[in-house]
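pinging the channel bc i need a second pair of eyes. not urgent but kinda urgent?? the chain im working w is below, pasted from the shared doc
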Amino acid sequence: MKPSAGNPTGALRVLIAGRAALANAALADLLKECEDTVVLGGPTKRIAALALADRMKPDVVLLDLEWAGGMVFQTIYLLREIVPPPAVIVLAQQVTVVVRRLCQEAGAELVFEKTADLDKLIEALRTLHRRKAAEARLSRKSG
């Protein structure tokens, strides 16, 4: 998947980081339901995802837990070191209380199951977009 061309003003910029290009593309298609959302790309390699996130400065990174494997907590930490830090949402085949807690302790904002929680993911992205818009309005008022 290639990075999306253009960025509508105020759009929520999302980077999808997962091992399967086809799954990344399917998720990108699903995100078309969200108004003002731009998918920046869907790298299938961890180092490429970190580099693209550092260069493109996404608002949100959707991180495949199984893709990141044993490096998921380090990957979350490294993503949160980017300035400004993106919200990291972890997607997993199955979410246990322990997995959710460990991901959130590492800096993930949310953790969802890939198939069962797609509606929750879409709603979370809409909420993040509203938050971004509110922050932009406050910034313009104070600036």
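so The chain has a mean pLDDT of 87. and The chain has one domain: 12-142. — does that match what u expected or am i reading it wrong
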